[in-house]
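Mods, move this if it's the wrong board.
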Amino acid sequence: MAQPSARPRVLPPGSDSGTLVAVPHAPLSGRLPGGYRGAVGTRRRLTTAVVAGVLALAGCVTTGTPTTTPGATVTPAGTSIRPGSEGPSSTPAASVVSPSAAVSPTSGPTPSSASVGPSTTAPTVTAPPTTSATGSAAPPRTTTATTAAPPATCVVPAALRGLDVERIPGTRKVIALTFDAGGAPDGGERILATLAAENVPATFFLTGNFVQQNPGLSRRIAAAYPVGNHTQTHPDLTTLSDAAVRSELDRARAAIIAATGQDPRPYFRFPFGEVDRRTITIVNDACYVPFRWTIDTLGWQGTSGGMSADKVYQRVVDRASAGGIVLMHIGSNPTDRTTLDADALPRIIAELRARGYVFVTLEAVLPAAP
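Not the wrong board. Structure tokens:
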């Protein structure tokens, strides 16, 4: 399910140039329609940063020391702040957490010497071809089901630790469509049909509950696209104990593997976008990198929240930029049952293509687990 906030935010100059840029966010409050929440209480949230260069990961493990990129902009680690969503913001926060150094792009995958824990081989799932960043068909993606045993040794790339990534690195005119699935499946079949008809890749974040309630749809999603972990029950993780956070991650991973044969690592998205340094550390230690978004369609608000398919379309095309990550949803609004993201998707794809954008998955940042 979505975790957006309606408060907009400005992306700074150079945010698609491959440097790491700290972005202040405006505070949010209150409960949004349909069970979606903004920030609660006085907790402060962590901002996200631009990741410099395409980082390689074998399975979900890479090691190595980042090198400093001249001219990179980095804010030293400090007190985390509350993240918001895209667009202009007039209320900057006081402090931002960023990595200790910027890194230069790597040229390709780096073999891993670390183990991600014991697993049991199960039937293989082969995905149909997807479109690469050059527009050509990529070979089918094959995944092997494994048990959801926790990783024995797992190292997230140093440059990605502590981040809630919201942009594809570099200056190429690429954009990533991402879909959260944690509630009703109402828009799922139409979304899959549109993506298949247009030969557009995407990334899906599934909750364990969604997968258990919709195993068939979940299998079709995972057979064609990368999937990520969106927790088991979609709680605000910042309100839970360390053990409870790990339980949410582990139970969701087990459910996704059991239903789809695909390991969701290393992709993760925080429910409601609620995040702090502690929860990011737990997520990283479980072999995940959290991904936020650059553009929130707000389609989850439904017509009861003042949105329409036309407004969803306009928000995306007006805010599109190189390296953008678009947040959309499979489900319907729980009040009015509208599926505005599914409704607007064909027009969004057509217009972004007309403007020269190439669609990619989050594998453009780091590869999925094999």
